[in-house]
Amino acid sequence: MTQASTNSTFKNQALANATGVSSTAKQEITVEFLAADPADKATNFPRIWVNTTTGALKYTVDGSTVKTATVT
Questions:
Q1: Which residues lie below 8 Å from residue 52, measured CB to CB, with a gap of 6+?
Q2: What is the pTM of this model?
Q3: CA 10, 68, 20: angle at the middle one, nearest 5?
Q4: pLDDT per residue as tens, the chain (72 positions)
Q5: Domain boundaries in the chain?
Q6: Out of the domains of life, which is the source (predicted)?
Q7: What pLDDT, on a 0 to 100 scale, did the predictor assign at position 64?
């Protein structure tokens, strides 16, 4: 079976953003894999990361409030 082409859905020049933007609406960001929570999250947001030491998935949209995704 042939795989469908992704040419119609690929967003050229719209690669994931890990440096922060002024608005979180319709932004794609890269999940980072870090040994510890980032120290510069207050100046670089929105941001999403996996703390590889604890295994926790965390994110912030405003640089100050950090949320942790949990599995129940």
A1: 33, 34, 35
A2: 0.64
A3: 45
A4: 555 555 555 555 555 655 555 556 667 778 889 999 999 888 888 888 999 999 999 999 888 999 999 765
A5: 19-69
A6: Bacteria
A7: 92
Half-sphere exposure in the Cβ direction for 66 (13 Å, CA): 16
Kindly report the three-state secondary structure assignment for every residue of the chain: CCCCCCCCCCCCCCCCECCCCCCCCCCCECEEEECCCCCCCCCCCCEEEEECCCCEEEEECCCCCCEEECCC
Task: Quote the CA–CA distance of 60 and 32 in Å, as a whole number.
Answer: 13
Which two tokens mark 71?
A: 């599995």
